[in-house]
What does this fold into?
Amino acid sequence: MMRDTIPADELLHKTSAIGQYYGFVPLSSLTAKARGTTRKSVGYPESLAHLSLDPVAEIVASFLKQFQQLESAPSPRQPLFLWHTNITPGRPAPKKAVVQFHALGTDRTLSDAIVIRALIALARDLFHEEPIVRINSMGDKETRARYARELTNFFKKRGSTLPEECVNCAKRDSFEAAELAIAHEYADDLPAPTEHLSDASRKHFEDLLEYLEMTETPYELTRNLISRGSAWSDTCFEVVIGDRRVAWGSRYNDFTRHFGTPMSAMGAVLQFPSTGTIVTKAKSPRLRFSFVHIGDEAKRVSIRLAEDFRKARVALVQNIGVESLTEQIHLAERQNSPYLLIMGRKEALENTAILRNRATQEETILPLAGIIDRLKAVA
It folds into this structure.
């Protein structure tokens, strides 16, 4: 039976651990680095005043406002993978806990896959059930405009057979009317957004599905899963436990323009009632290994291995979304892990990885079969 509340301590500690293994850093760590510097005060952009934001978009807007104040900038060479929460150590637990995962500065489907995998891992840990991931694509601005016209025509033609509430709603917002039709189970012949995708959006969606399948990530294609608000674009997904949606995620590239320089962005939000008194700080384990990888084959292997390392409690960190091997090694040096676990295309195809002792530069080739036991022996 699904529990009704989650201790805030548990949610914070599990989110922190999952962030480490999947390459997300807390937004609070960037905030800490910015302390003592002059930070401009940023209000909500006036351009948002005329937009009707859904509750999840409001949460993402608040995140982007905080991020904008830090004046940090991701780049294709070094995108930012961040997690954020309203749970604060030393303060009372919030009545409703919010956890966010964001990938900023990259439009690669790899980032979509990593966000989805992190949410699956967190949902499994919190609810001790296998989550259902439902996924669809709303496409880019061009696609959404085309799909809006199709929905308008649908409600005009079907007006006599649909609830009056849907028909009236369609006159002001065809996407909201579509949600009502889905909720009332009148959506059997509702137009599917994937039938109207632009070439770019179709390729992005197909690439993501291929990535999910090659990383053995379970999902369900859901043609009636739509994102209503103007904040969202392309990939959208929900994480469901039982009959309850616990998380929602989507790309929001166009939404970022309200907060300064436009950038590619993917994000997901998990919300759930929480309990507890004063929240304790999550303990950071002493890292032993930094896993660095180059090439799609190695990235796919690293995504699959992340959960194995986490369950085995191997003190390991990685930055899956960072493409450059040089940047990954630079990050590993800052994390001061004694060992590097290195994988390129050759190693991925041969099911091996290279273990390098950073102090002696000695390297050992390890087969992936049994690698966890070998790493535990080293640690």
Observations:
- The chain has three domains: 6-131+221-275, 141-193, 289-378.
- The longest helix spans residues 109-127.
